Fold this protein.
Amino acid sequence: MVIRLLLADDQALVRGALAALLDLERDMQVVAQVGRGDEVLQAVRTAAPDVCLLDIEMPGNDGIGVLEQLRAEGMPTRCLMVTTFGRPGYLRRAMDAGARGFVVKDTPASELAEAVRRVHAGVRVVDPALATESLLGGPNPLTDREREALRAALDGSPIQVIAGRLFLSPGTVRNYLSSAIGKTGTTTRVEAAKFAEDRGWL
Amino acid sequence: MVIRLLLADDQALVRGALAALLDLERDMQVVAQVGRGDEVLQAVRTAAPDVCLLDIEMPGNDGIGVLEQLRAEGMPTRCLMVTTFGRPGYLRRAMDAGARGFVVKDTPASELAEAVRRVHAGVRVVDPALATESLLGGPNPLTDREREALRAALDGSPIQVIAGRLFLSPGTVRNYLSSAIGKTGTTTRVEAAKFAEDRGWL
DNA sequence: CGACGCCCATGACAGACGTCACGCGCCCGC
DNA sequence: GCGGGCGCGTGACGTCTGTCATGGGCGTCG
């Protein structure tokens, strides 16, 4: 019995290459590929994959959102998250959202198929280096509003613009950002935003 | 006669997947893989590939720097640049540095092998959408110093820190950044830096 | 209930930031 | 030679930011 796979990654070249890699395995078959988060649900419905490989950073809907969507719809698919680099904060959020495994794009290609098999067998798979980093880094200390403010501050917009996007007073935004700057040990809102993003806190 | 390939990409999973994809082609063989820019030269020497696939964003040395290095050493290898997304500014710099082709990671996987064959045959390969975008976007209007300042401003550091990194007076840095903000039509240094980065001006 | 944390806001203040004008030196092209 | 662009710097100006104190409203937990 082959394992039916769905691949979700926004870069077509990477997606296709992963498909080639996994199709080489005798016990696997890629039955669907999508390039946007908001196309996953539909694809899962029609292709009925056993395991989904989800990139976390995708247009349309990020991997975490897709996970929640799939769970809300009661789909039996098991999901293995694939993401670029560390971002330990994503690990917890992905696991909380129902992910069955978590690997980074730095892992050797030869281990991916094995991770897929483990997830398919119901075993939870977590990149060990990432897991320790996650425990070491501690939990996300930011409040919801602070996270929103940081997300809006990532591109370097002036506070007034950020306030407009969040429908808040500029003073309030400054307070949130100031608090976030304090919690991250940085000195400007952009540094704080980058810091938080690196840890997957956003 | 098979085409001997070298792959350079910092993400092991992507690298391995691309290797799997290209090894499927009867007329190709991946003879070397590296994960850092500064390992390419050595690998080219020992493996003598016909064509190199170089990611532009890599630790150690970026793809453009690698190109210059290879040309300075007189290596006969032909290089096909692979990069994430638009960044039209990279196109010109890569071509000037001796690249024989340029594809983005959004192109379908099925076209990659053909691009490699074309490059190997001595034909220049450029993603057409990217080429028009490059012509439309016009040339890079920034001076060298402005580019340095923007690069140092990308992470949101205070001007004083940037000035320290560049061994310049804070006032001078402010002038460069102000000039760059004007040229990019933005309102803060971080916005200007992002804007320039998106266009591959850095 | 009272304490606490989060949300939202205001006001004040020092320092950082972006703009502008101006200066000097250098090199390159006309 | 001489203008003009670039590198580098200074000074001044007004605005934006980050910090802090303070307030009220709300939900939660002991």
Observations:
- DSSP finds ten helices and six strands in chain B.
